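Good morning,

Attaching, inline, the backbone tokens for the sequence recovery test we're adding to the shared suite. The designed sequence is right after.
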């Protein structure tokens, strides 16, 4: 019985995702994502912006809700940057079960993050139907598709589309 209790404690003290962190080759450009899970434990996952499905154990992919079609149309209009159906369909959405996440080399907390070159958008779960957050990330995709430099130009994010940082 004592052994069983000890085993249970060990199981509960290890965050589930810690056991399945994918091994990333040191040659690849990797980042460590850290966040608190739904019960407040700190979880870290090494990941990479170059490999396919780097986040599959840490983030859950989800099918974009129908409203996203409307939001793509709205941001195409307000930015005046059209996106092809192929590019739009290439975007994969992932949610993170956390209030925020951050990268180990940046001190900023994120509720959404876009890796446009690999067609991925990451959003905290509670904001996946928040137009302000989702459309903000979609604009990063449009800017990338049109060869614009990374950043948050005020004219696009604040003035034209009203999705500046909250
Ligand atoms: Zn942004």
């Amino acid at each position: 019985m004592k052994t069983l209790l000890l085993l249970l404690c060990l199981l509960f003290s290890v965050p589930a995702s810690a056991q399945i962190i994918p091994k990333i080759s040191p040659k690849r450009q990797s980042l460590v994502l850290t966040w608190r899970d739904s019960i407040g434990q700190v979880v870290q996952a090494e990941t990479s912006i170059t490999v396919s499905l780097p986040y599959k154990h840490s983030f859950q992919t989800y099918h974009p809700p129908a409203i996203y079609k409307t939001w793509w149309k709205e941001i195409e209009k307000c930015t005046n940057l059209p996106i092809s159906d192929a590019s739009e369909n290439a975007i994969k959405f992932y949610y993170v079960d956390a209030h925020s996440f951050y990268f180990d080399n940046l001190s900023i907390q994120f509720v959404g993050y876009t890796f446009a070159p690999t067609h991925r958008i990451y959003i905290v779960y509670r904001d996946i139907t928040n137009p302000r957050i989702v459309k903000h990330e979609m604009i990063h995709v449009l800017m990338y598709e049109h060869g614009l430099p990374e950043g948050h130009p005020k004219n696009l994010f604040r003035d034209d589309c009203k999705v500046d940082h909250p």
